[in-house]
Amino acid sequence: MPGARTLQVTGADDEYIYVTHRLWSDKLTRSYLEKAMALLDEGRMTRDYASVIDHYRTFIADERPTTAATVLKDLGYVD
What we know:
- The chain has three helices and three strands; from the N terminus they run βββααα.
- It is α+β, with helices and mostly antiparallel strands and 79 residues long.
């Protein structure tokens, strides 16, 4: 189905969240996601998806910011 989501969280440990896409697999640093969740909870980061991508890349880490924003959205932190 065109437009179907293909990103999946496949695992997690103390350091990383593991994700796969139909074309690739990678990991996100757990502490970076936790920092983003804290900023979102404190209202210090917007919940707008596109803005989260830019903010994450600039202020947290340039580590798959779109993927991180998608995971945060799936967790209910991002609109």
